[in-house]
Amino acid sequence: MHMARLLKAAGLIWKPRPGDRFAIPDRDLDDELFVLSNMTIQVHDRPEGRIIGFNGTTEWALDDVEIDETVWLPREDQLRELLGGTFRSLEREAAGHRVRVDLLGVALSFAADSAEEAYAAALLHLLNAAGARDGG
């Protein structure tokens, strides 16, 4: 969840869709993984903002939570999609995985234990580069 928090802090915007994974930190639920589903966990647009509703969870004292209180845990395919046209390759290495991207003609690579972590590191770099370029 650490990398997901860094991505959120860098400006990654979550547009919730069924199948998305998320966590609810700082509410004694740090170890829980939630998945949006049309059956049990849905996003609702309310006048006060978007919330995630937990339908039929009578055993919990959790009816809904504001999206800002959650951390999106993007899957490998979502991270690759977010890299867009900068993505060049994913390679398996002895020590893990390496993602290669091209940022404005500069070849960059990011290594991590898992493919998901390597994609996230590349995306974090792109978000930070965009923030620096925009003056943020």
Biggest beta sheet attributes: 3 strands, antiparallel
Residue windows where pLDDT falls under 50 for at least 5 positions: none
Number of helical runs? 3
Instruction: Indicate the percent of residues in helices.
Output: 25-40%
N-to-C terminal Cα separation, in Å? 24 Å
- Mean pLDDT over the residues: 88
- Number of DSSP strands? 9
Element-by-element helix/strand order? HEEEEEEHEEEH
Structural class, judged by helices and strands?
A: alpha+beta
Instruction: Give the C-alpha Rg.
Output: 17 Å
Strand sequence of the main sheet, in spatial order?
Answer: 2-1-6
Beta content comes to 35-45%
Backbone shape: globular
Q: What does this molecule look like?
A:
The protein has helices spanning 2-9, 76-83, 115-133, and strands at 21-24, 29-35, 41-46, 49-54, 64-66, 71-72, 87-93, 96-103, 106-112. The strands form three sheets. It has a three-stranded antiparallel β-sheet. The mean pLDDT is 88. β3 (41-46) and β4 form a beta hairpin. It has 136 residues and is an alpha+beta fold. It is 26% helix and 37% strand. α2 packs parallel to α3.
Protein traits:
37% strand; 136 residues
